[in-house]
Design a protein that fits this description.
metal-binding; 2 domains; metal ion binding; transmembrane; 453 residues; 9 strands; disordered N terminus; TIM Barrel; single chain; alpha/beta
């Protein structure tokens, strides 16, 4: 053999095998480390290229980071912006009359009401989901009795309390029938929890103190049953307050709140029941704003300066809304009813946005919300035909320059602030030992003023 081959065959066979095995292990390790290093280089090079591309695109197109969601700002496209905003700040509507549809459409038979499919009017679960609804007040409304039925002193229509209890029952029944979609809520904390869980917060509201049967005691029992606002009037006067009528004002009876009405507001403050000023006369609204210790709401009212009907809130009353001296925190939740929005045939999404903008201008954008009145109205604005259309309204306001925070306030944040404020006032009053109001309507004939035993 030649000398150049000698080193390859030195040693015995076992040594030769051991050297080969050692060399193979080192080779495998080197190859594996090389592959890992190569993969890392490829990955980091790719990320670097993507970063450089993103930077270049961002420099060329300043809106790229907004549209991609990288900046935290809303996208430039109004429809996409509305969807993204509502994903984190869904609509909390101040007034929907769904229980009324169940009453007259199905005689309150909860088992037969198909909320998970297309309903005959404006509201059902699929459209609520499409409209990005995070919560709404279920109005447990029953209408005013006729003057002949109730009598001149509102004493005879006691069945309105019975009917209200039936509406509370049907609302709760529908909420519990669909537990994957609705969450029964009685506090601001409950509402936030429901929204976090992806459910539709469901709160109860009584639309008119004519449903109290002239009794503050009935108010307390409604609160125990989960009701969290009472509208001081509907289209009729009652023992507590004057109504605004409908499109034109009614002649006053009490010239605002009656003596019993002032006591009612005080008891609502003590309980944490929201004072709702929709449907009230201008004098009632002004007196309640000034007398209430807690923030108040208009659950479904628009701006009279935009469309002059008595159901809308005038600028003179809006001037009392705010955080300044002589003002009260409140939220005006804008109604979508065609006759309250514009002249016949002219109500559309732009007109609704005009109402919202006007209230935002006069009272401030922290004092406006949404209270559609869906399922309780026969004429809806073009572009806002049902609960699936809320995103279109948000897109319209976004185009008008409303910011992300302002829109989130409109969709529900402003209402939640007011609700939390009312809860705090109630807690403070109860901690201070404020006693319940036991005042009795002075026209009642079934209770003597005092009886000697």
């Amino acid at each position: 053999m030649s000398a150049e081959n000698d080193p390859l065959i030195q040693g015995n066979g076992s040594d030769l095998q051991r050297n080969y095995a050692h060399d193979d292990t080192e080779y495998d390790t080197t190859q594996r480390d090389s592959r890992v290093l190569r993969n890392r280089v490829i990955i980091w090079s790719g990320l670097a290229v993507l970063f450089i591309v993103a930077v270049v695109v961002a420099l060329v197109d300043s809106g790229f980071t907004r549209d991609s969601g990288l900046s935290g700002e809303l996208p430039r496209d109004p429809q996409l912006a509305a969807q993204r905003l509502l994903d984190v700040a869904p609509v909390i509507d101040g007034h929907i009359d769904l229980p009324l549809v169940a009453r007259f459409g199905w005689r309150n038979n909860v088992t037969e009401v198909p909320l998970d499919s297309k309903m005959p009017m404006h509201v059902d679960i699929p459209r609520l989901r499409e409209g990005k609804v995070g919560g709404f007040f279920w109005s447990v409304y029953v209408s005013c009795a006729s003057p002949e039925d109730e009598g001149p002193d509102f004493l005879k229509a006691s069945w309105r309390v019975r009917d209200t209890l039936e509406q509370i029952d049907v609302a709760k029944g529908l909420i519990s029938k669909y537990p994957d979609d609705f969450a029964y809520t009685i506090s601001s904390k409950d509402i936030k929890s429901a929204v976090r869980d992806g459910k539709i917060a469901s709160i109860l509201g009584v639309e008119g103190a004519h449903q109290l049967g002239n009794s503050i005691a009935v108010l307390r029992q409604y609160y125990e049953l989960g009701v969290r606002y009472v509208t001081l009037t509907h289209t009729c006067h009652n023992a507590f307050a004057d109504s605004c009528g409908f499109l034109t004002p009614s002649a006053p009876r009490h010239y605002g709140l009656s003596p019993l009405g002032f006591k009612l507001v005080e008891e609502m403050n003590r309980l944490g029941m929201l004072v709702d000023l929709s449907h009230t006369s201008d004098m009632t609204a002004t007196q309640a704003l000034l007398h209430s210790k807690a923030p108040v709401i208009w659950s479904h009212s628009s701006a009279r300066a935009i469309h002059d009907v008595s159901r809308n809130v005038p600028d003179e009353v809006l001037g009392f809304v705010g955080f300044g001296e002589g003002q009260r925190d409140a939220v005006v939740m804008v109604n979508f009813n065609g006759p309250f929005i514009a002249d016949d045939g002219e109500a559309d999404i732009e007109a609704v946005a005009d109402h919202i903008e006007h209230i935002g201008k006069v009272a401030g954008r922290k004092h406006v919300g949404i209270g559609s009145d869906y399922d309780g109205i026969s004429v809806t604005p073009k572009g806002l035909e049902d609960v699936s259309k809320y995103p279109a309204l948000i897109a319209e306001l976004y185009q008008r320059g409303w910011s992300k925070l302002e829109l989130a306030g409109l969709t529900g944040g402003n209402f939640l602030r007011v609700f939390e404020g009312a809860e705090k006032v109630a807690g403070d009053l109860q901690d201070a030992g404020t006693l319940p109001k036991y005042d009795i309507y002075d026209r009642r004939e079934d209770l003597p003023i005092r009886k000697e035993f």
